[in-house]
Amino acid sequence: MMRRGTVADVIRSGAMSISRRSFLTGAATAGLSSGLGALAYVNTVRADTVLSRNSLAIPALMDGRAEAGQTIFDLALQAGSRQFFPGLMTPTLGINGDFLGPTVRCRAGQNVTMKVTNKLGFASTLHWHGLHVPAKADGGPHQVIASNAVWSPSFKIQQKGGLFWYHSHMMHRTGSQVNAGLAGLILVEDEESSALDLPHEYGVDDIPLVIQDRRFRDDGSFDYMTAMPDMMMGFKGDVILVNGTVSPELTLQRQRTRLRLLNGSNARIYNIARSDGRSVVQIATDGSLLERAVERRSVRLGPGERAEILVDAMPDSSFALISLPDDAGGRGPGMMGMMGAAGNDAQFTILMLRAGKLDTVKTPLPDRLVDVPSWNAAKAQRTRRFVLGMGMMGGMGMRGGMGRMGGGMMGMTINGRSMDMERIDERVPLGATEIWSISNATPLSHPFHIHDIQFRVLERDGVPAPPYERGLKDTVMVDPGETVRVITRFEDFADPSHPYMYHCHILEHEDAGMMGQFVVV
Ligand code: C2O
Ligand code: CU
Ligand code: CU
Fold this sequence. Notes:
single chain, mainly beta, seven-stranded mixed β-sheet, six-stranded mixed β-sheet, binds CU-O-CU linkage, binds copper (II) ion
């Protein structure tokens, strides 16, 4: 694969990919002095010939501190380094730590202040993905936190219980800053969901999983955006990290475990399933529990999407959470084939699960979970159309065009336009119920994300949303050629001078301009 960079880079990366390939075929594991052995083996996940597993890290829980009727969360953006592989230090970014950040736990109705201190030495932002907050508190590209500055937005938590997350949203830098580690979880609790008989002991039977992929250089540093397809296909790594742990293993402590999944990757799509062929029970989407639990063979998550699943285990059993190859929603062959299925074509292990002695009292699932807000499509004030496009595809800019994309010649577009921070693309009246119709005119799948609100998926190409999509969502996969219609109401926060974003959550696409701005007025 052609790479940019120095000759030394090319030689080194070439050597590295060869050694990785030899691991793929199960070749010798001995004789590797550096961390390369560990590096390479992760790529063999498809063979599941695992030498050693690391115990899964659980992000620290942060409940904030009380001050004058507010709950304050102190979050420091900082640079650090982490040993992902024996003997190799990786320069990283994190929040209150070296890589990723604590799980911010809050309750519906709580008044919070996020006190974000930027100790990075360069500018960044911190966005509350999925939270319904005023635009100026949103942490998007307009709320830049300068080096050494403190940004302290206050807002009330107005959410259904669920898993949300925070991450850098720096204009043109989101991909690299998130890749380096600027992301973490937000756990919102509300009475309705807490009252259910579902596992909810954080880190015991309620386990958050931030699923990411990374590429490493042989000196241990992250290798980001050096390969030709990284911009167009989105950046994909060959090492899977869960909560920052390489080749993770979790010991199950209860018969039934709730896994809260975040696809925190820049571009990779996961099709999450059990290696033993048993099904999982999906109970939540991005922004709420489902009305009813749904049994599933696999759960597909695009970047930015979340889901919660329940897995039941027999005593003394072990199995893995794996990712099955993605077929772009069945729209893959053809263009996708030509593009190598956009690099989502492999099967690999995400997390090993081992059960010890478990007590085997099986509680039935509640058959109704929660009420999920919905809006009547017949009463929507208007439908807005969004067409996702990739500029210069006509000339098959994959080679020639790719090189220019960093320079801004290549456009990732919505309705034919690339993101411009000075341009407001849509004005939404406060209180309006609207249908947003998103069409994908490209050969790749795109996760479309809208700030400010949670929506319901109405239909995909005219077919009503399947039961597992009938929860609140803020990010939705739109496959090649597909049109997805979602509905929501824009409530509470009108502000003509501070926009919210909508964009593709493949961070390289977002950084390249597949993003637009709306104001609520
Ligand atoms: Cu997860 Cu606009 O972001
Ligand atoms: Cu967001
Ligand atoms: Cu995209």
